[in-house]
């Protein structure tokens, strides 16, 4: 019998230099695996380095014109402002690696019940443009990969980042085989929201008890309605009370309990799941890393890996 373990996509390309002011958002991606290794939660063989997602696969989701702009470095100044990063070949390579990492995670999830991407959850990327630190929509590309190859028939995207998954919602607005669920801050970015299959808008200042109650109520309804055979889970930690932009008041323990509810429910229903980290913008990077590492610890405990 094959030994089951937690496979985690790690992207060493994060070490590439970035202009001043853009380094901090990337720092957590280097620190999370290091912390998990230091604590003994994982070993080196839990980590894998994906390659680059082929153009053919990217084009099942994104437009050829947009992909060409990314690869030829011809994004306009305005397009770069909307993304939030200055364009560079390394940045495009990074996004292609993140996307392939999520696809690879799908195969590991079929084997072990779950797999995780240290990055990913780039849900603000549309088919023809990027926004909000997102260039390519890795969940969307991976979902279309599964559908194209007949590996899944009904996919559920659970997006619990504090920001609405606007790009994901738009990409799949006419695709009934992918159900998009976004539970996000009502008064938060993006200020023009797209229409997911199911949106739950949260008021500013919501705390643990109310937040977790909504998660507990919503998940059974989701699974009953969608009947998915595969799920993607975006576990953003920008719901924390310490987050600079989140506007919610969820504690680190509340965030961990959220992950326990989601992952336990998916395991109970035997639905393979890929998890990506999404956002987190607390002033202290150690807070961000702790909250994200909790997601990995919960996954390992729930799935007994």
From TrEMBL:
**A Pfam family matched in the record:** Hist_deacetyl
Q: Which residues form the Histone deacetylase domain?
A: 28-293
CDD domains per the record? HDAC_classIV
Q: Which domain of life is it from?
A: Bacteria
For this protein, the record's InterPro entries field holds: HDAC_classIV, HDACs, His_deacetylse_dom, His_deacetylse_dom_sf, Ureohydrolase_dom_sf
Q: Which GO terms describe its molecular function?
A: histone deacetylase activity; hydrolase activity
Q: Name one GO biological process term.
A: epigenetic regulation of gene expression
**What are the entry keywords?**
Hydrolase
DNA damage in keyword set: no
Family note? Belongs to the histone deacetylase family.
What's the protein name? Histone deacetylase
């Amino acid at each position: 019998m094959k030994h089951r373990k937690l496979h985690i996509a790690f992207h060493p390309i994060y070490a590439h230099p970035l202009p001043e002011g853009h380094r901090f958002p990337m720092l957590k991606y280097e620190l999370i695996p290091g912390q998990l290794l230091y604590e003994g939660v994982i070993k080196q063989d839990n980590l894998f380095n994906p390659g680059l997602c082929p153009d053919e696969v990217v084009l099942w989701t994104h437009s050829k014109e947009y992909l060409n702009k990314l690869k030829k470095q011809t994004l306009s100044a305005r397009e770069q402002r909307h993304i939030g990063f200055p364009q560079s070949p390394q940045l495009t390579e990074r996004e292609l690696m993140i996307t392939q990492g999520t696809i690879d995670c799908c195969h590991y999830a079929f084997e072990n019940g779950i797999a995780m991407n240290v990055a990913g959850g780039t849900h603000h990327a549309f088919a023809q443009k990027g926004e909000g630190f997102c260039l390519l929509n890795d969940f969307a590309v991976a979902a279309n990969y599964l559908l194209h190859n007949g590996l899944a028939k009904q996919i559920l995207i659970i997006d619990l980042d504090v920001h609405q998954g606007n790009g994901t919602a738009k990409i799949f607005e006419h695709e009934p085989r992918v159900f998009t669920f976004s539970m996000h801050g009502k008064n938060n970015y993006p200020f023009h929201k797209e229409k997911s299959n199911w949106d739950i808008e949260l008021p500013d200042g919501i705390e643990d008890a109310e937040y977790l109650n909504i998660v507990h109520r919503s998940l059974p309804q989701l699974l009953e309605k969608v009947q998915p055979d595969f799920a993607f889970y975006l576990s953003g930690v920008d719901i924390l009370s310490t987050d600079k932009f989140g506007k919610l008041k969820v504690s680190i323990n509340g965030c961990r309990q959220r992950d326990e509810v989601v992952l336990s429910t998916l395991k109970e229903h035997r639905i393979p799941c890929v998890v990506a980290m999404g956002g987190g913008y607390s002033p202290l990077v150690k807070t961000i890393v702790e909250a994200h590492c909790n997601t990995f610890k919960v996954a390992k405990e729930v799935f007994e890996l």
